Write the structure tokens for this entry.
Amino acid sequence: MDGQLCMPHDKDIKDLRAEMAANEKEHESFRRRLHEHDEQINAIHQLTATVGQLAQAMNDTKKTVEKIDRRVETIENEPADKWKKISFEIVKAIVVALVGAALMYFGIK
């Protein structure tokens, strides 16, 4: 009778061992996937930090370009400003000459 009682328990033990082995394989798969996810999360964190650094570098570059743009605009406007001043002086000299000539013509000293 003892031999017959052990048989059903042996089957239960074998079934439990098989289930444990299947669970261990499943757990190993979970551990491997968790490890892969950890690596991916670390890569994402590194990428996020790099993107932040790139954004800062772009912002700095934008500020530098704006400064250069203002300087170039000033340099570009210099000839026009000089021409305006020269034109004004030429027109002023012509007006003064015409007024002087008119005064001399009409005999006013």
